[in-house]
Design brief:
Number of strands: 9
Structural class: alpha+beta
Number of helices: 2
Shape: globular
CATH superfamily: 2,3-Dihydroxybiphenyl 1,2-Dioxygenase, domain 1
Radius of gyration: 14 Å
CATH architecture: Roll
Helix content: 10-25%
């Protein structure tokens, strides 16, 4: 259904440090900048793009929005969470944990306040 998700950032280098760390923790690759200066992350068939807002106003996080990122194992989720908190992210909700349905999940806010979750598939 979706081709990509694009979010805004007020500091692309700070975002690059955060997302490079979190995606490599999941076994992904470092982000690349395109000709417009946007950061692009490709992972497991999905694409996340990060840009300064084109209207020149400050980037803000979506109130009520969450971006879900697929992880292969609980260890990947833990590594993603640790990489995120080490690189400017904030742990939110609960520590990484397994839900009753077998999904292992963790939540972070990136340095610009966007809410993210990394999770495994249900067992």
């Amino acid at each position: 259904m979706f081709t990509h998700i694009m979010i805004g950032s007020n500091d692309l280098e700070r975002s690059r440090a955060f997302y490079d760390a979190t995606f490599t923790a999941l076994g992904g690759k470092l982000g690349e900048k395109d000709e417009r200066g946007r950061l692009i992350y490709n992972h497991d068939g999905g694409r996340l793009m990060i840009t300064r807002p084109i209207d020149g106003r400050p980037a803000t996080a979506a109130n009520g929005g969450t971006i879900g990122i697929a992880a292969t194992t609980a260890d990947h989720v833990r590594a993603w969470h640790e990489a995120g908190t080490t690189h400017g992210g904030t742990s939110i909700e609960t520590p990484p944990y397994e839900r009753p349905n077998g999904v292992f999940v963790a939540y972070l806010r990136d340095p610009d306040g966007n809410k993210l979750t990394a999770r495994t598939k249900a067992a």
